[in-house]
Amino acid sequence: MIGQPLWKNLKALVEIDNNIKQLKEKVKGEIQKVETSKSLIPKIQKNLLDLQLNCKEMKKKVDAEELIANDLKDKEEHKREALDKTTNEKEYRAIEKEIKRVTLERMELEDVLIQSWHKYDLAKKEVDEQEEQINKEIEETKVKTTELETELKESQKKLDSALADREFSTKNIPTEWLHKYERMKENVSNPIVPVIQNSCSACFYNVIRQDLQRLKNDGMLLCRNCYRFLYYEKEEEKEENSGSF
Ligand SMILES: [Zn+2]
Q1: How many angstroms does the Cα of residue 97 sit away from the middle of ligand 1?
Q2: How many angstroms separate the alpha carbon of residue 13 from the centre of ligand 1?
Q3: Strand 221-222 with 229-231, pairing
Q4: In this structure, what DSSP letter does residue 232 have?
Q5: Ligand 1 centre distance from Cα of residue 4 (Å)
Q6: Is the CATH number 1.10.287.1490 carried by domain 12-170?
Q7: Is the dihedral of CA 162, 163, 168, 170 positive or negative?
Q8: pLDDT digits (tens, 9 = 90+) for 38-54
Q9: In sequence order, what are the beta bridge partners of 221?
Q10: How much is the pTM?
Q11: Is 206 helix (H, G, I), strand (E, B) or coil?
Q12: Domain segments of the chain: what residues?
């Protein structure tokens, strides 16, 4: 690059900068994708945990109800034993009444227990069905995340390389011109344009004769109207002419 006209070095810089801009956007998008993919995993895991927790709660309910049912059964048995032992008629009737009450309570509870078992069975079935599916989904998401991370790493590597290219490339450009270029780059996407038919090809402002001569001697100037960098290249002018006729 050293030894070639300044405008060629600047044009090379424009290309590098455009590439850097694209790569930065790409990296930004890919970071977003990785983050989205990563954030999916805890969400999927939570779905499974909720189902498992729900199932556990139902089992707890079933167990608690069974304990009470057994307790009632024991009570009933003891009372029947007491009934067999008693000889007092009044006491007999009282115990009999109590047995009826406990039996009724136990039967009611058993109805509830059947419902609870049914609900627990359904919840357990759902967990079993979903568990495999959800674990598969988690694995797939992990694989996808890794793929996205690899893509991101590649893009970051390319960006680092482009930034290094830029640093190298700016060494061939005088600081003064570099600063002018940086400022122009902020405002327009095409800071360096060729002179075509004696005019700035961006704003069509006429280039005066002395300036044109300087440009033709591989010089570089700023357009007096739009301040873009101007250069002259025979080939580009030829192409432009053949295109318009
Ligand atoms: Zn111009």
Answers
A1: 109
A2: 20
A3: antiparallel
A4: -
A5: 24
A6: yes
A7: positive
A8: 999 999 999 999 999 99
A9: 230
A10: 0.72
A11: strand
A12: 12-170, 175-244
Specify the amino acid at residue 23: L
Average pLDDT over residues 135-139: 94
DSSP 5: -
Rounded distance from Cα 8 to ligand 1 centre (Å):
18
**CB of 231 closer than 8 Å to CB of 194:** yes
Q: How many Å lie between the centroid of ligand 1 and the Cα of residue 160?
A: 33
Beta-bridge mates of residue 195: 200
Rounded to an integer, what distance in angstroms lies between the CA atom of residue 88 and that of residue 85?
Answer: 9
Q: Mapped to the 3 state alphabet, what secondary structure does 143-189 carry?
A: HHHHHHHHHHHHHHHHHHHHHHHHHHHHCCCCHHHHHHHHHHHHHCC
Q: What is the pLDDT of residues 230-240, one digit of tens each?
A: 999 877 777 76
Residue holding tokens 């930065």?
24
Q: Is 46 exposed, middle or buried (0-12, 13-18, 19+ CB in 10 A)?
A: exposed
**In angstroms, rounded to a whole number, what is the distance separating the alpha carbons of residues 16 and 10?**
10
Residue 201 Cα to ligand 1 middle (Å): 7
Going from the Cα of 224 to the center of ligand 1, the distance in angstroms, rounded, reads: 7
- Read off the amino acid at residue 221: L
The rounded Å distance from CA 199 to ligand 1 centre is 8
